[in-house]
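To: structure subgroup
Subject: Chain for Friday's discussion

All,

I'm putting the inputs and outputs inline so they're searchable in the archive.
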Amino acid sequence: MRGSTAGLADTLASGSRAHAALLETADCLFASIVVAPAVVSYWKSTWSLMDLYVLPDQPVSSAAACAIFGLCCDLFLCVFQSKLGKYLRPDHGRLTYYVFSRVYTYVAGVACVGAWRGVWNLLNECTGDSARTLLSTTAAATLSLAALRALRNISAAPFAVAVDGPHDYFDVPTMFRTSSREMALYVLDCIFSVAVVGSLVVFVWRGSWALLDIFLYPDDQVRSVWTSLIIGYVIVLVTFAMQVPMRWAAARLHGAPRLLLVDIYHLISFVATVNVWRGVWGLLDVYYFPDKPKLSNWSTHIISLTLLILLNCSNSILVRGVYIDAEEPAGDCVIFPCHYLRLFFHKERTKKRHRRAIAAAAMATARKTEEASFPLQIPEEKV
C-alpha cells in the first residue's frame, strides 16, 4: 500500500495537464466533502455554545456583547497583522510559532463567530424576520457589496480553503490596501473593512438563510435541511464544472461586462454555499445528540477544530480581510481558492527537482575531482 501511495504521489507530481486536472478535481472534492463540513461544524458548535453561555436569558445583551467582542478583536488583529507576522515566524522558533499561530486561529475564530452572531441577532431584534424586510435588506446589502466591488467576500467553504502557510498566516487584506506606515488612514481602512464590509456580508447571509427558512418546507425541519443540502451540493458540482468555460469567458471580457459576469458567478456559488451550510448545520441539530446540547456542541467544536488543524487548513474557519471583485488578471478572477493538494504536490515536485539538481551538481563535482587527480601521463609512456 505504501508503494502504491508513493507511486500515486510521483504520478500526480509529474506536472502534465491530465495530472493537473486530476489534482484540481481532488481539491474540489476535498473542499466540498472534508473542509466544508468541518468548517460548518466549527461555526455551528461555537455559535450554539455562545447561545448556551453568553447571557442566555438576555438575547439583546448577548448579541451586543458578542458583536462588541468580535468586532473589536477582528479590528485588533487587522491593525496589528504586520506585527504578528514579524514576531511570529518559524525561523524564530518552530514550536513557538506553531503553538501561538494556532492560538491566534482559535481566538480569531471565536471572534469571527461572535461578531457574526452579534450582528445577525441584533438584526433579528431590530428588523424582524418578515419576508419583505428580509428581501429588501438582503438586496440592499448585495447591491452595496457589488458597488464596492466586494461581492466575492460572501464566499466561504467549499469555495475557499485557507492553507496554514507561514508566509501569509496573519495577513488580513483591507478594502483600500492602505499601508500601515500611514497609521491614521490604515486604522480607518481597517475599521471600514471590518465594520462596514464585514457587516454587509452578514446582512446577505442572514437574509438568504432566513428566506430559506421561510420558503423551504418551513413546517418540516428534516425535509428542509436535507433539501438544502442536496440543492447546495448539486449547485456546488455545477459551479465547479463551470470554472473552465467561465475562465475562458472572463479572459475575453473587459470592464463592466467582465465584472458583471464575475459577480453573477459568485452569486451562484453563494447560493450553493448557503444551502450547504444550512444543510450541514440543520443535520447536526437534528441527528447529533439533539437532547444533549452541551455534549453535542463541545464535542463538535473540539473534533472539527482538531481535524482542521491536523489537515493544516484551520484558517478556513476565519472570515477576515476584503477581496476585490475581478482584481486578478484575465480569467483567474473566477478561480476559487481551493488549492490544497495542488500546493502539496507542487512542493513535492519542487523538492524533487531540488534533490535532482543537488545530485547532478555532486556528480559533476566528483567527476571534475576525479579528472583532476588522474595523471596526464603514466610512467610507462615516458619510457
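Points worth raising on Friday:
The two ends are 64 Å apart (CA to CA).
Confidence is low (pLDDT under 50) at residues 1-14, 378-383.

D.
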